[in-house]
Amino acid sequence: MRPLIIIGNWKMNGSLAVNADWVKTVCRGMEQGMPAGRQYAVCAPFPYLAQCSQLIQDCSLAFLSLGAQDVSAFESGAYTGEVAASMLKEMTCKYVLVGHSERRQLHQETDELIAEKALQVLDSGMTPVICVGESADERNSGREVEVVRGQIAKQVAVLQDRLADCLIAYEPIWAIGTGQVASAQVAQDMHRAIRLQLAEFDGDVASHVGILYGGSVKPDNAVELFAMPDIDGGLIGGASLNPQDFLAICQA
Ligand code: PGA
Fold first, then answer.
1. What is the pLDDT of residues 50-109, one digit of tens each?
2. Domain that includes residue 69, residue range
3. How many domains does the chain have?
4. Which residues line ligand 1 (CB under 6 A)?
5. What is the pTM for the complete model shown?
6. Among 103, 129, 225, 236, which residue has the most ligand 1 atoms within 8 Å of its CB, making it the best to mutate?
7. Which of 119, 132, 194, 228 has the CA that lies 20 to 30 A from 163?
8. Does residue 10 fall inside a structural domain?
C-alpha cells in the first residue's frame, strides 16, 4: 500500500512571524490526532528552512517533515545563487520539489535539467517530487496525455529504477492557483495513465511510486480526490498558506 502524502508548497510567501505561527498552529492541530499511516510536509522558501526545521523538530511529530521548493542541478562550486541538495539535507529536508510548472515557465527549466536535479536530490538521500502537467491549450487540443507522457519519458530515461524512490506530482497548469480544480475523475485518469506508463518500464516501480495531485486542492475537494485509487496525496499551494485549511486537507 502506498501511504497518502500531503505536501504544502508556500511558494514565495511567509515571514519569520507568519511561519512560526503556521508551524505552531499545524502542530497543535496534528497533536490532536491524525489519520494513521500518512505523511505530511511543508516546502518553505530557502531562507526559512533553518527556522522551519527547528520549529518542526520542536513539535516532534514523526509524520510531519520539511521540504524545499527547488535545488541546484550541480553538487557544489561556483554557481552563484544556487542551493545544493547536500545543504537541503543538512537543513533536515525530506522532500524537494523539482520541475514545478512555475519554474518550467518562468525559468525555462527543461525535462533534462529537472532529471539532473532529481538525481542530486536522490544522491543526498531525499525524495524528489517531480512535477508534471499540461497547459490549458494542450488539454483543449486533446494532447494532455501525450504531453505528460513526454515529460515522464524523459524522467524514466535518466532516472530508471531510481524512480521508485521519487514522488510524481501531476499538476495541470490550468488548475494551479486558478480555483479550477481538475475533477476527481479527470485527475484519476491522468494518474492512471502515468502509472500505466511507468508499468511499461517496470511494474514494481509503477506500483511503488506515489503520484500526488496538485492544482486548487481545497478542504472541500480533497476528500473526493484522495479517494481515487491512483491519487496518493496532494501538493497544496494556495490553501497551504492558511494553517487551518492545510490541517483540514491533511485530515481529509
Ligand atoms: P495551488 O498550487 O494549490 O495554489 O493551485 C499548487 C501548486 O502549485 O503546487
1. 999 999 999 999 999 999 999 999 999 999 999 999 999 999 999 999 999 999 999 999
2. 18-26+38-251
3. 1
4. 9, 171, 176-177, 214-217, 235-239
5. 0.97
6. 236
7. 228
8. no
